[in-house]
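Exam revision sheet. Question 4 asks you to relate a sequence to its structure. Input first:
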Amino acid sequence: MLTPQARGPLSDRVLAAMRDGATAHLVQVPEAEVAEDAQLTLWALYEQHYRGFDDVPAALEWDPHLIAVRRHLEEDFERILRDRTPPAPHAEPFAETFFAYIADHDGPSVAAHVQRAATSEQVRELLRHRSIYHLKESDHTTWAIPRLSDPVKAAVMELQFDEYGCGDPDRLHAHLFALGLEASGLRREYGSYVDDAPVEILEQNNAMSLFGLNRRLRAASLGFLAAFEATSSTPSRRMAQGLDRLGFPTAMIDYYLEHVEADAVHEQLAVRTICGVLLQEEPDLLEDVYFGAWTSMDLEDRYAERMLQEWAA
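Answer key, structure tokens:
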């Protein structure tokens, strides 16, 4: 994967420095003029910790000048996300309260639109956007594992083992999505469509990386995971039905059918055994669990609102 196209003066400056290695001048960088300039820059800096870029030296992953830019951007981003988050409920028991919190959240649904009314081109656009996450799937959660106690670590590993195909590389969820893309006439290469991604998709991916890379935000990472899993099964069924309605290939439909059953199990594991046990050990992390959960749902709402408005225009 090559570095993406810049979206403003900040990303232009930082991406150029990443490519040529001349990072020392990044002690002074222009402020982002628009949110997508900041988010693309942050996404590219985070990507250094995933698979990196073919046109950026691997030695720059921990370059102090790039890390300084990343820290500045992620501090601003975290402040934005926290400002959007309402107070967390403190009722007990946690699991029942959390599931009620999720159920009470009624946002717009891209999956419902796909199920009933989307065109094939709208779905292909959606798949291109989703590929930014689904081709790396749950890698961001894996970063949290060394930061957890043994009981929570074991539970996360149980969930991740399924996400990573139960030991079969052909069953990795990211691989299944890649097969679906290819069968649908889309590119399956990692990061192929980042230049097509709207700012809401960049924010979703950056929030996952922010939570996964920072040990102090491990509870937010697990709260994000729990909300994601608890809101995935029904939309996956709707996606599968919509794809079938439009005549998409079996490989793409099968990816979503895989998540109908898997995520129904994963939600119980993520809420009760992962977050529940974490909070028994460290009850002061409750606010961050809900911070991650709200962020997961809110960012999905923001993406859905944008796309549904664009498709209705």
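Marking note for examiners. The chain is about 65% helix and 0% strand.
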